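Re-run with default settings, no changes from the original entry. Doing this only to confirm the output is reproducible before filing.
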Amino acid sequence: MTILHIDSSARLQGSVTRDLTGRIVAKLGGDVIRRDLAEALPQINETWVNANFTPADQRNAVQADTLALSDTLVAELKAADTIVIGAPVYNFGVPAALKAWIDLVARAGLTFQYTENGPQGLLDGKRAIIAVATGGMPVGSEADYATGYLRHVLGFIGIQDVQIISADRVMANGPEAIADAKAEIDDLAA
């Protein structure tokens, strides 16, 4: 099994999600592709969009260079059987660095395609495990915009098997929330 291990917490030390994703990866075992988003990825811009919508065989050197990082990120995603994502909730949503990663991997013709029946994901058969930590918001509540978004975008690119492991309300219920998340990891099937 190949695991794509993605951390998006800005905190390098003391991060709940980094601890949880490390535990998940250790529990699952296998080959690991590591992608740390602490150093933010570039935002897509007009140059990137124009390069992306130029057919691959017609791209010039600048366009190919513009898409090189995105191509690498897509290749990492395609190579993985399981994607493990650490997603702390910042202001009710995912970190900007994780959103940038999503923008760079959600590419028509590579990870999804448009059909007469609407968009179709191209990454079927993969599993995603998302370790979520929140300060005060309960995961699954009306104010939880992060987990629904992540489930939706992963499904959009074809990853339907998505499991959420949550350490929610850490600021109010820290030790218990973290212990509950660790217990969920202990029960994970490889």
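The two ends are 9 Å apart (CA to CA). The helical segments are 16-28, 46-52, 61-79, 96-105, 146-156, 170-186.
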